[in-house]
Amino acid sequence: MHHLVASCISLLIFLLTPSKAKHNSTYNNPILPGWHSDPSCTRVEDVFFCVTSTFDVFPGLPIYASKDLLDWKLVSHAWNRESQLPGYSAGTEGQQLGHYAATIRHHDGIFYVICVYLGAPAETGVLYTTKNPYDDSAWSDPVTFNASSIDPDLFWDDDGKVYTVLSGITLQEIDVKTGDLSDPINIWNGTGGVYPEGPHLYKKDGFYYLLIAEGGTELKHSISIARSTNLKGPYESYKHNPILTNRNTDEYFQTVGHGDLFQDTNGNWWGTALATRGGPSWKVYPMGRETVLFPVTWEKGQWPILEPVKGHMTGWTLPPRTRELPGEGPFNDDPDVYDFKSGSDIPRNLVYFRVPREDSFAVTRKGLRIIPSRGNLTGIPGNDDLSGQKGLGFIGRRQTDTYFTYSVVINFEPKRIGQEAGVTVFLTQENHIDLGVVLLNSSHKDESPRLYFRLRTEATIVDNLPAVPAPRQPVKIIPIPHSWVGEKIRLQIKTINETHYGFSAMPSTRPQAAIDIGSASAQLVSGGSGTFVGSLVGAYATCNGVGSGSDCTQGGEVYIDRWRYSGHGQVIE
Ligand SMILES: *[C@@H]1O[C@H](CO)[C@@H](O)[C@H](O)[C@H]1NC(C)=O
Ligand SMILES: *[C@@H]1O[C@H](CO)[C@@H](O)[C@H](O)[C@H]1NC(C)=O
Ligand SMILES: *[C@@H]1O[C@H](CO)[C@@H](O)[C@H](O)[C@H]1NC(C)=O
Ligand SMILES: *[C@@H]1O[C@H](CO)[C@@H](O)[C@H](O)[C@H]1NC(C)=O
Ligand SMILES: *[C@@H]1O[C@H](CO)[C@@H](O)[C@H](O)[C@H]1NC(C)=O
Ligand SMILES: *[C@@H]1O[C@H](CO)[C@@H](O)[C@H](O)[C@H]1NC(C)=O
Q1: Which residue has the CA at smallest separation from atom 10 of ligand 5?
Q2: Among 326, 399, 405, 426, whose CB has the most other CB atoms within 10 angstroms?
Q3: Where in the sequence is the active site (predicted)?
Q4: Which ligand is nearest to the CA of 545?
Q5: In CATH, what number does 36-315 get?
Q6: Host H or E run for residue 8
Q7: Whose CA is nearest to atom 7 of ligand 1?
Q8: Catalytic positions
Q9: What is the CATH number of domain 336-571?
């Protein structure tokens, strides 16, 4: 009823003042909440496309599409098959290596996503192409190239020549069919901030504009710009650089930088960049670096003016809201309601830590089956079988809301001590919070092994950064009531407040019998070993090392169903 009244009133206002439609729009940041760092965006006809970084997760390089700049549909991943980069994932050590910041561009009917894969072997430039960004399988195997640095841009000059610009900042001509490169030319060093990176070139009114990120991706992050009438320079730095930053402010959105600029169909300019909420203290930011939108005023022959990033924004008139886009989705703010009905696909917004082992995940009659990985979520770095490089028994989705509830129903009948299945807030293998159901020896001497809830945290301390995660908290072990045996169990993670997660468990058919297992600070999954990535919430299965090679001893698989995630609110200031 209220809805109806409200829409009648707004219709009335609209009819009485038709010029309103021409007025500037208001909207909220982030436009892609949750871990969506280093956005690069472009427009093709009336559709905007963005790609973001994915580092350690597979599938990688998500492609989001939108007609209104606010509703973003996850239409494909440029990297979606192990065969596109055979062996790379398993060969990648370390927590945050993989696909770094990409650039998306469209030219003559072809979409290009150019990126650098860090890991094995060394640094490899990768250039994926497609004519159909709405279909995973249409993305090509990459053309690879010898990348001298990271964050490649792709730029077509008017004479048809194609260039890549990399962190540093260097320019090279590139053959997009073969990956052949000319020798790099150092065209700018930025204004003196550390890590001049994330470059993008634009040609406008006779100038080549070079937009870069500087200052590192933490509190000093910024965007600066230079221009030249000659592609190869010399580039003149703008005297009012940086043109965008929130450093030395008390804004809730910090770390603003690494941007890209594009025009809407009215010719108005916009930009996207990464930003992290939780400022100015910047201690609790489990979602990591997210994508924000800002209006840009760019008059002929002038330097662009970028509107400072906040939660509430006003800018050019946005296109009308619509979700009419091809492809399967979901949209970024859709809740997950996944029952894993036999024959269905694993939803597109669910990701793995590195490429999973074959057959580890399957939708079956009993739900989504996860074969346990011998290494647990922490694993043992350097141990080929237990490091997690060859995949984990873990599947998750981004935490995309300040407040949310996530839960799954597990069907799990462990036979051996150490077998475990549960839910987790996972940043990296070194920073995660797990609520597991695990078979352990009973604490009573004469009792046979029994099932326990176990809440445990893993958090490395990284002291070279301002963000020092809270120390690991004591393990909490609670026996599962005997009366629950034989029932499926729902495990739940729900934000208690802006800074803490609460963990609970209940028989799937008797929510009123829920047991509160405990809470943990979101600071455990903020920064630390995962400053580039953001938290995922998901489900896992492991045997905690029991077995040999990469395999657990038989059994211990878990069947997941009624996977639910819903957001309850965003804090934006
Ligand atoms: C790759 O490029 C670097 C400089 O950018 C050069 O030193 C190196 O020899 C190149 N490697 C190959 C395999 O071409
Ligand atoms: C960048 O810095 C290096 C080292 O100081 C210098 O040799 C080079 O000329 C600089 N490049 C530009 C384009 O100013
Ligand atoms: C509308 O937004 C643009 C971009 O921020 C700005 O340049 C312009 O001044 C605004 N117009 C009005 C009427 O506020
Ligand atoms: C569990 O108890 C059995 C029998 O007491 C013992 O042999 C075994 O080592 C224990 N396992 C663990 C993991 O503690
Ligand atoms: C958030 O919840 C945690 C756990 O219940 C509690 O310790 C903390 O004080 C709460 N914080 C605020 C600001 O209420
Ligand atoms: C992970 O598994 C290893 C054995 O592979 C074990 O030593 C360690 O305690 C486990 N840690 C966690 C947090 O699961």
Answers
A1: 497
A2: 399
A3: 38 (proton acceptor), 197 (proton donor)
A4: 6
A5: 2.115.10.20
A6: helix 2-16
A7: 148
A8: 38, 197
A9: 2.60.120.200
What SS3 state is found at 32?
Answer: strand
Q: Residue 453 C-alpha to ligand 4 middle, in angstroms?
A: 18
Q: Ligand 1 center to residue 304 CA distance, Å?
A: 35
Provide the token pair at 367.
Answer: 């739900």
| Alpha-carbon gap, residue 556 to 529, rounded angstroms | 29
Instruction: Name 170's bridge partners.
Output: 166, 186
State residue 9 phi and psi, 5-degree precision: -65, -45
Residues 6+ apart with CB under 8 A from 311: 28, 29, 252, 253, 572, 573
What is the sign of the dihedral through the CA atoms of 391, 392, 394 and 398? negative
Ligand 4: residue of 415, 438, 441, 442 to mutate (most ligand atoms within 8 A of CB) is 441
* pLDDT tens series, the chain, 573 aa: 344 333 434 444 444 443 334 689 999 999 999 999 999 999 999 999 999 999 999 999 999 999 999 999 999 999 999 999 999 999 999 889 999 999 999 999 999 999 999 997 789 999 999 999 999 999 999 999 999 999 999 999 999 999 999 999 999 999 999 999 999 999 999 999 999 999 999 999 999 999 999 999 999 999 999 999 999 999 999 999 999 999 999 999 999 999 999 999 999 999 999 999 999 999 999 999 999 999 999 999 999 999 999 999 999 999 999 999 999 999 999 999 999 998 899 999 999 999 999 999 999 999 999 999 999 999 998 899 999 999 999 999 999 999 999 999 999 999 999 999 999 999 999 999 999 999 999 988 878 899 999 999 998 755 445 555 566 789 999 999 999 988 999 999 999 999 999 999 999 999 999 999 999 999 999 988 899 999 999 999 999 999 999 899 999 999 999 999 999 999 999
SS (H, E, C) 527-543: CCCCCCCCCEEEEEEEC
Ligand 6: centre distance to CA 234 (Å): 55
- Pick the atom of ligand 2 nearest to 186's CA: 13
How many angstroms from the chain centroid is the CA of residue 83?
Answer: 22
Q: Give CA–CA dist 188/491, Å, rounded.
A: 52
Task: Write out residues with Cβ below 6 Å of ligand 6.
Answer: 375-376, 378, 380, 386, 456, 458, 544-545
Residue nearest atom 11 of ligand 6, based on CA coordinates: 378
> Rounded distance, CA 284 to CA 428, Å?
16
The CB of 234 under 6 Å from ligand 2? The reply is: no
C-alpha 490/C-alpha 561 separation (Å) is: 9
Indicate whether residue 417 lines ligand 4 (CB < 6 A). yes
What are the residue ranges spanned by the domains of the chain? 36-315, 336-571
Q: How far is CA 225 from the centre of its chain?
A: 26
Q: Tokens standing for 187? A: 């065209």
Judged by its nearest atom, the ligand closest to the C-alpha of residue 521 is 5
Query: Does the beta carbon of 270 sit less than 6 angstroms from any atom of ligand 2?
Result: no
